[in-house]
Amino acid sequence: MLVLSLLPPLSPCPQITPLASIPSSSIISTNQSSNHKLSRRKTLSLLTSPLIISLPIETARAEDKDETQQEEERVIQIFQDASPSVVFIKVLALQPKSGQNKKDVPVIEEEDAKVEGTGSGFVWDKAGHIVTNYHVIDKLATDQSGLRRCKVFFEDVNGSTFAREGKLIGYDASYDLAVLKVDVEGDKLRPPLIGSSRDLRVGQSCFAIGNPLGYEHTLTTGVVSGLGREIPSPNGRPIRGAIQTDAAINAGNSGGPLIDSYGHVIGVNTATFTRKGTGISSGVNFAIPIDVVFRTVPFLIVYMNVAKL
Question: Which residues carry out catalysis?
Answer without folding.
Answer: 135, 176, 254
